[in-house]
# Entry
Amino acid sequence: MQINITGKNMEITPAIRQYAQEKLTRMQKYLESISDAHVTLSLQKYLHIAEITLHADGITIRAEETSEDMYTSLDLVIDKIERQVRRYKEKIVAHGSRKGSRVGTVIRTSALTEEEAEGETGKILRTKRFSIKPQHMDEAILQMELLGHSFYVFRNADSDEINVLYRRKDGNYGLIEPIP
# Structure
């Protein structure tokens, strides 16, 4: 597993780097197919933020935690990722895997800095582009849950159309499908 550790508004010390790497290598006992992990550690005023994104076997798992200490933030985010991986593994065992329906996303982002965005309203601040592989509805729901998003764009394996899955306020899901 390749581990990338990045610092925003802070310098990554060797002790923090080693601590994060040790914690992440333990994740392989839950999910052996982790290809790479990206850890972003940032400092905003008094808050220490740890964000981890794992790429494994065609899925993306992401978590973020904040506390007043970087080591605590790392512990919290690792615990959160661990719960998500366990939940993913349980769903895979319960539902079985469908052949040829792996999720694969490549995301490129571009964003304006705060100074550039200040005073401008109604502007596009971030653009994301990603490739989409066909997947079934239950896999799209699982991927949306693993990412912690309120919506998810995917190619429906049944109709081969681009669909948008979203979480409703009542806790259920909604689906937006194009009209042919």
Residues 97-118 have pLDDT under 50 and may be disordered. The chain has two domains: 2-95, 108-176.
